[in-house]
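Page 42, continued from yesterday. The earlier attempt failed because a stray header line got pasted into the input along with the sequence. Redoing it now with the clean sequence only.
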Amino acid sequence: MRALVCGAGIAGLAAAHRLHTHGWQVTVLEQAPGPRTQGYMIDFFGPGYQAADLMGLLPRLRELGYHIDHATFVDHHGTPRATLGIQQLSHLGMVSLMRPDLERALRETLPDDVQVHYDAPLRQVHHHGDTVQATLADGRTLTGDLLIGADGIHSTVRRLLWGPDTDHLRYLGFHTAAFTFTDPRIHARVDGGFYLTDTTGAQMGLYGLRDGRVAAFTVHRSPTPRTPADPRAELRRTHADLGWLVPRALEHCPDPEHVYYDQVAQTLTPHWSRARTVLLGDACGAVSLLAGQGASLAVGGAFILAEHLASAPTLEAGLRRYEQQWRPEVEQRQRAARRTARWFLPPTRARLLLRRAALHTTGLPGVSRLLAGVLTGKPTPAVREHTPLGATGRTR
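This time it went through. Structure tokens are written below.
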């Protein structure tokens, strides 16, 4: 069986890994000219962590990961106002790492015979009986038994077969951005922790990387999902008055092509597969940064898709079983994200003070576990409980 995977991000690379384990020939197509370097720090836990363990990836992820003790909210003067001990959540099984580093680990460990083609934008998809045909921008045509659309929240595969983004995205009222820069003074102030402004309307987070760079993460409220032509100018406009180290960080904001910038949205797609094409990861189930588990769900979903394709009597049955089992997990986390949106970036000072008070209680016994449940929803059953092969790595 041959799979064409559209998207060389986390979901696509994870799917390529697991399908290859089950004997598939895999070709990965990516429209970008190379691997993405922009991104933010993620706490990788839950179903993706379980799947990564079963795939033998955890040792490499731990090498690339960071030991971050705490997330501290600071006011305009840099005075700490609340602290969340991240290690208090270690019972979840977790590693903190940069999102591009997770992609790097998946890419580094791909089998040699998995082909990855960059600068390969998809233009057309056609189904012909038991095969699917993908036509690229340069005129090349590839044929497979299955096409996987793992190409993100603005999926080309979804647009070609399901319709425009406006039919499938639920905008949550925020824009987000991430970039890295070098500033020894800021690095010394934030190294070893994750520092966020304790502000309303807009927020910046800063953390030090091991190579001396500083990573910045931002989120701000916006009435429209439309993203600006100049992300750097927009960040300087919306975040300039946050105080602390923010103005200095904004001075280092790179050219727009080196800034990750997007709307904060969730994907709502009524069906995840059509004929010999299936959607995966953010293309069908983006939960948004408010849920904080997009990377985990991408890896976990890819793992479960591959297991069902390996065990089902037909490809169609495998696609159906994948959606039946995985959609409820995604939708549960989408609901949790919508519930917590007003706390993620409080719209008023009153709500800011309420969040600050809640964070002060996280050191009490049992509260951090309760907070994790509030922020992320119900615990996900172990990946092996979802999969017909017991997630042992066996192939048919």
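Notes: The domain at 2-169+265-386 is CATH 3.50.50.60 (FAD/NAD(P)-binding domain).
Reminder to self: strip header lines before submitting.
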